[in-house]
UniProtKB/TrEMBL annotation:
Organism, as annotated: Streptomyces kaniharaensis
CDD domains associated with the record: GT20_TPS
Domain of life: Bacteria
Gene3D superfamilies associated with the record: Glycogen Phosphorylase B (3.40.50.2000)
Protein family membership: Belongs to the glycosyltransferase 20 family.
Region spans: Disordered: 1-22
Record-level GO cellular component terms: cytosol
Record protein name field: Trehalose-6-phosphate synthase
GO BP: trehalose biosynthetic process
GO molecular function terms listed in the Swiss-Prot or TrEMBL record: alpha,alpha-trehalose-phosphate synthase (UDP-forming) activity; trehalose-phosphatase activity
Length: 484
């Protein structure tokens, strides 16, 4: 039968997120090819060795949609695909609703609010177009809540992930009060005076949606406290600051801090496979015996790539001793290209990179190598090679690059780290920390990294690697589950 009954399901543990652990593409002959996703959540869930666990995610493109509609109830058969024991249910949400919810509300509105990205004299504007997007976001969250309610066994634990799904916890609680519901935020959280930019009903729906969970988890205490401050200021909720609880409308939500770490075992093994060695040899050939400054990011507004390049240009302009002695390797791979702001930003990154090479390159020295395609083994090779890693986001929930580089570095790497990254809270002692808006201070930190004595660099890198792997993804995931 392809009909779903109205009864409860059988899954004792469920995860819900917009982007799931797998995605599909269509090969030339029309068949569907599956690719496993990376990231902490995918590794984390592998700690659950329960074939009844279910991961509910959205079909993100046409190939995903085909896969979802071919499988009964969207439940995919992933046997033999190295994606853990759990089942995956991909929701086939109609493309217009999905685009409005994902691009319009999640990525253009909530992401911008939490990363403080608006140029406020002209944006945001909450008009009739936004209202259509907001309706779609509500429908998209309701589709997730329905699927979770149908799949969950009585008393099951459900872990809802991130700002795409902020309404889902309350919707799910209304449908299934028996469930234990957790919510986890992978982004920073905006301070109340910025969160108030949202229309009042939208701000309230987001906060009360999350407060539908028994526990709301954050990557750092900074973001947990900002969420609590929004609950007090906008809802009048009662916050117990020492117990980190929020009491609102007769219910208590516990706030948890779970600082996702790097997957040390996986990274060390993966970084020494032949495909990485090959790419390392190619990078070494391009760089020669010069020093290297490495950055690896999605081309994402909050990653602050443009100011990073301006800092490198300032370094070369003010310290000519580095000419022909350093190469900046910048990997900035495409992200959210449906949004005009991201396309414009990508163009600005490419223009500035071109200008830097035009200003300083010589027949034998290319000061900047920019790659705009995603290649994980090449990123690992750059991590191994780096003398300095530049991680300078305007604001970042955690930033795993800052945690991954020290783990795989071959000979120690100085870390230039923004104080606005969540990772700062754990790594500040051994990093060279910067205000991400201060291009001159960033250039000075790059210089300090390039001139750091080898022994100091090695010692700092060891301590950074230990801090970075303190809570590996599997433990991070189990901690949240156990706390529920
Ligand atoms: O960590 C924040 C996050 O938005 C995740 O939810 C998401 O999967 C990732 O960044 C990449 O963004 P996107 O899924 O929009 O490519």
């Amino acid at each position: 039968t392809t009909e779903r009954s109205n009864q409860t399901g059988t899954a004792p543990v469920l995860v819900a997120s917009n982007r799931g652990p797998v995605s599909f593409s269509t090969s030339d002959d029309g068949t569907l090819t599956l690719r496993r996703g990376g990231g902490g959540l995918v590794s984390g869930l592998s700690a659950i060795d329960d074939p009844n666990a279910v991961w509910v995610c959205a079909a993100l493109g046409d190939a995903d949609r085909r896969a979802a509609t071919q499988a009964p109830y969207g439940r995919l058969d992933l046997a033999g695909h190295d994606v853990g024991g759990q089942a995956v249910r991909m929701l086939d949400i109609d493309p217009e609703t999905f685009a409005r919810a994902y691009n319009g509300v999640a990525n253009s509105t909530l992401w911008f609010v939490h990363h403080l990205l608006y140029a406020t004299p002209t944006a945001p504007v909450f008009d009739a177009g936004f209202r259509a997007e907001w309706s779609a976001y509500r429908a998209y969250n309701a589709a997730f809540a329905d699927a979770l309610a149908a799949e969950a066994a009585p008393g099951a634990a459900v872990l809802v992930q991130d700002y795409h799904l902020s309404l889902t916890p309350a919707l799910l609680r209304a449908a299934r009060p028996d469930l234990r519901i957790g919510y986890f935020s992978h982004t920073p959280w905006a301070p109340p005076e910025y969160f108030r930019l949202l229309p009042d009903d939208v701000a309230e729906a987001v906060l009360t949606g999350i407060l539908g969970a028994d526990r709301a988890g954050f990557l750092t205490e900074r973001w947990a406290r900002a969420f609590a401050a929004c609950c007090t200021d906008l809802l009048g909720a009662t916050v117990d600051h020492s117990a980190l609880t929020v009491r609102y409308a007769g219910r208590t939500t516990h706030l948890g801090v779970h600082a996702l770490g790097a997957d040390g075992d996986f990274l060390r093994e993966r970084a020494h496979r032949p495909d990485v060695d090959e790419r390392l040899a190619a990078l070494r050939a391009a760089v020669g015996d010069r020093r290297t400054i490495v950055r690896v990011d999605r081309t994402e507004l909050s990653k602050n790539i443009v100011r990073g390049l301006q800092a490198y240009r300032h370094l070369l302009r003010t310290r000519p001793e580095w000419h022909d002695r350093v190469v900046h390797i910048a990997f900035a791979y495409p992200s959210r290209t449906d949004l005009a702001e991201y396309r414009d930003y990508t163009a600005e990154v490419e223009r500035l990179a071109h200008d830097i090479n035009a200003e300083f390159a010589t027949p034998t020295w290319r000061p900047l190598i920019l790659h705009v395609d995603d290649d994980f083994p090449r990123s690992l090779a750059a991590y191994r090679l780096a003398d300095v890693a530049l991680v300078n986001p305007i604001r970042d929930g955690m930033n795993l690059v800052a945690k991954e580089v020290p783990v795989v570095s071959d000979h120690g790497c100085a870390l230039v780290l923004s104080r606005e990254a969540g990772a700062y809270d754990e790594l500040a002692d051994d990093a060279l920390t910067v205000n991400p808006y201060d291009v001159i201070a960033t250039a000075d930190a790059l210089h300090a990294g390039l001139t750091m004595p080898a022994e100091e660099r090695t010692e700092r890198t060891k301590r950074l690697a230990a801090a970075a792997t303190a809570l590996p993804p599997q433990q991070w995931f189990l901690d949240q589950l156990n706390a529920l």
